[in-house]
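Protocol step 4 of 5: obtain the predicted structure for the target chain.
Materials: sequence only (see below). No template structures provided, no constraints applied. The aim of this step is simply to have a reference model before the mutagenesis design in step 5. Sequence pasted as it appears in the construct record:
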Amino acid sequence: MLNYLIPANLVRRMGTKNLSVGFTMYNIFTIASKEMKGQDPETDGVGTTALPITRQYAFSLNAGF
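Step 4 output (structure tokens):
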């Protein structure tokens, strides 16, 4: 998670005590060994297809009053 706390002097002008914003990413890329070259990492090894690995992005905003 990448999080940034906005400085207090800017936040007080908006009427809050504290304010932070954050960003999180999951499953952005897949790292596989050389033995996996040419194979699909989303299979279970027997040739059947599993559900795809989904990329997830989350944005957060935390404010204290």
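Step 4 remarks: The helical segments are 8-13. The radius of gyration is 20 Å.
Proceed to step 5.
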